[in-house]
Amino acid sequence: MSEPRRRDFLKGSLLAGAGLGLLPLVTRQSAMAYPRPTENKISLATWSINRTFFMGGWKMDDLPRIVREDFGIDGIEHVNQFFDVPTETNLNRWNQRAKDYGVQNVLIMVDHEGAMVAKEEAVRKQAVINHRKWVDIAAYMGCHAIRCNAYGGGSTPEEDPDALDRAAESFHALVDYAAEQQINVIIENHGGLSSYPGWLPALCKKVDSPHFGLLPDYGNYPDGVDKYEEIEKAMPDAKGVSVKTAWNPDGESSIDLPRMLNISLAANYSGFWGIESGYQFKSGDLPIEEVRKGEWQAVLWTKKVIEEIVLKQG
What we know:
By secondary structure, the protein is an alpha/beta fold. The protein is 41% helix and 14% strand. It has an 8-stranded parallel beta sheet with strand order 6-5-4-3-2-1-8-7. Helix 4 (88-101) links the parallel strand 2 (75-79) and strand 3 (104-109). The chain is globular. The termini are far apart.
């Protein structure tokens, strides 16, 4: 996108937000941003235990203890859907609990904040504005990134050939805001165009910013796509990895996890390896303790493979 066009889009975004009467929950001057971690450690993508969350099994205050004491790992990849109201009081308490348990807030996965690739410019501008508060919150919590989605476009590049330009425009605007706090904006292959072969690497080339990159997800590709090949293509732009797999009760993984991890290692990736595990529960209503047992077991099985393939090499 040309610089004048980008300035016009940013100006429009600012004007669109002027009448909202909203202020960031965290002042930008108070943020404490951190660079992307590059030491190999394991983090928990908290969606791994989402079923117990929605059943009332835990809250944000519990996460540092769960991550450290139950799983013995070092980082938390937050999901914005799990946040209570992110007031300064709450954020300070969550930061302190993370410090108390010696775990790092790594990133925030941001969902339901608007379609960054929508065909309507006003919708895209509003989506950029909606994401800004999560940049502020991520910086305040010492995260290195927010994970966004590239939603709003067609199903294929042929169906929506302008989607790449629209996405680049939106993410340029968000990255310009995030870069002031040294926060990265990263995109996950998360359905639609974002899971279409080669689309996200092409978006990275178009945005062309050191503060923009990918969170390659090992599992989020449609049937018929060679997910191993696509992860290999995505890894040069990776600022994290989502180590996703589903486990059956016998301990069998839905993907060749060692192969995926070795693809990431071959691309010279280092940093947090985010566990996003699933467990194949039997159908029907289950008591929370049975759900907890399955979710926790899937995390520990994934952790074991990461330790054997990644950490032992370090």
